[in-house]
């Protein structure tokens, strides 16, 4: 398991995390994630290696018979429970940092994943 | 000079040989070579993936090469897409390998640190246990020494007390003996003093009787007068004292 989440939250990493968070219980293989995140094929793997070493993502081989299926086994990636929670927090923090205006809310807020503002917050600001 | 075609022969027979060669190269060889090159693109992509895997730490090579090859084979698109996939994988493999190596180094350092900490904890626990054992042993030895010293002290004290009592008894005995002899000597001396006093009284009586019979001043002596003041020095009145001293010696 990785040491920490000591990697930079680049745009590519955010895109990958959003894809994984859209279906947190589903397993994804590399080409699928690249296509969903809009990344060029072949450029995804450093990001996945960092996420996997940080413990946010786990991977495992596809359980098939390659000769029966007619293709090699895929490597499937999946968010870990802790990784899903940390990814949510990291994306929320990034969105909060990038959109400080009160009226501008990111996608997580539209899904109800952002911080809950209590009535009276911001009064006098 | 351009050769002209003979009447009745095909039109190209009138072309120059260079033109024919250019035509043949353009129409036949270039497509063949391009097709050959394009057919080689997947092989190049595979070789790039293999070379990319060699940029990773040894323990990751097989896993990532298999993963990349699996996605390479089902990659949608043409052969150029496969080549681009291989190029991207190769280009990113160096940073991936550096990251994985750094993480592995951190893990190794953490394991070494944990092992060192564990070894240090074990050493501390061993040292404490050994210190406790040594302390218990020293305490037992100290208790033994103290017990032995107390026993010896009690024995010495008892011996000293016995000896003191013995000395006291001896002293008392000597005192008793010394006091007994002194009493005896005192009684002896008192007896001699009594004898001397009796002798003196008897001598004095005899002397008075003699003096009364011979001396006319005897009545004054009997009345308590001072005979010595009326007699000359060195007269016969001092003779009995000298006789008494001789008798005492």
The residue ranges of chain B in which pLDDT falls below 50 over 5 or more consecutive positions are 232-242
Number of spatially distinct domains of chain A: 1
Characterize the main sheet of chain A. Answer: 3 strands, antiparallel
What's the architecture of chain A in CATH terms? Orthogonal Bundle
Radius of gyration of chain B equals 75 Å
Encode the helix/strand succession of chain A as letters.
HEHHEHEHH
Series of secondary-structure elements of chain B, N-terminal to C-terminal: HHHHHH
User: Would you report the number of β strands of chain B?
Assistant: 0
Looking at the structure, what is the overall shape of chain B? rod-shaped
Oligomer class: heterodimer
How far the N terminus sits from the C terminus of chain B, by CA atoms, comes to: 197 Å
Describe this structure in words.
The complex is a heterodimer of chains A (125) and B (249). Chain A is mainly alpha-helical. Chain A is built from six helices and three strands; from the N terminus they run αβααβαβαα. Chain A has a single domain (11-62, 72-110), classed as Arc Repressor Mutant, subunit A (Orthogonal Bundle), CATH 1.10.10.10. Chain A is elongated and about 55 Å long. Chain B has 249 residues and is mainly α. Chain B has a domain at 11-106. Helices cover 84% and strands 0% of the residues of chain B. Chain B has six helices and no strands. Chain A binds chain B through residues 2-3, 29-31, 40-43, 45-46, 49-50, 53, 71-75, and chain B through 63-64, 66-71, 73-76, 81, 84-89, 92, 95-96, 99-100, 103, 106-107, 110.
């Amino acid at each position: 398991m990785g040491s920490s989440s000591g990697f930079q939250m680049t745009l590519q990493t955010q895109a990958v995390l959003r894809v994984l968070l859209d279906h947190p219980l589903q397993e994804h293989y590399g080409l699928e994630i690249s296509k969903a995140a809009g990344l060029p094929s072949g450029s995804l793997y450093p990001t996945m290696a960092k996420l996997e070493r940080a413990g946010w993502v786990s991977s495992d081989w596809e359980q098939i018979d390659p000769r029966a299926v007619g293709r090699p086994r895929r490597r499937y990636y999946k968010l870990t429970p802790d990784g899903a929670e940390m990814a949510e927090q990291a994306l929320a923090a990034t969105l909060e940092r990038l959109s400080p205006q009160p009226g501008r809310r990111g996608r997580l807020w539209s899904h109800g994943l952002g911080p809950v503002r209590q009535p009276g917050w911001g009064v006098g600001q | 000079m351009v050769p002209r075609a003979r009447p009745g022969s095909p039109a190209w027979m009138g072309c120059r040989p260079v033109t024919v060669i250019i035509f043949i190269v353009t129409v036949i060889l270039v497509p063949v070579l391009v097709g050959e090159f394009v057919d080689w693109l997947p092989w190049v992509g595979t070789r790039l993936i293999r070379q990319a895997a060699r940029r990773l730490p040894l323990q990751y090579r097989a896993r990532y090469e298999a993963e990349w090859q699996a996605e390479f084979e089902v990659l949608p698109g043409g052969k150029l897409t496969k080549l681009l996939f291989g190029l991207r994988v190769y280009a990113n493999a160096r940073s991936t390998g550096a990251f994985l190596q750094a993480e592995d180094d951190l893990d190794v350092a953490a394991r070494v640190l944990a092992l060192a900490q564990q070894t240090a904890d074990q050493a501390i626990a061993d040292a404490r246990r050994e210190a406790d054992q040594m302390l218990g042993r020293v305490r037992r030895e100290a208790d033994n020494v103290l017990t032995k010293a107390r026993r010896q002290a009690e024995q010495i004290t008892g011996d000293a007390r016995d000896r003191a009592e013995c000395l006291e008894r001896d002293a008392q005995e000597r005192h008793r003996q010394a006091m007994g002899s002194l009493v005896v000597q005192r009684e002896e001396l008192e007896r001699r003093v009594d004898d001397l006093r009796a002798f003196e009284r008897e001598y004095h009586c005899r002397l008075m009787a003699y003096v009364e019979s011979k001396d006319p001043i005897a009545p004054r002596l009997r009345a308590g007068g001072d005979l010595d003041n009326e007699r000359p020095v060195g007269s016969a009145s001092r003779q009995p004292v000298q006789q008494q001293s001789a008798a005492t010696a």
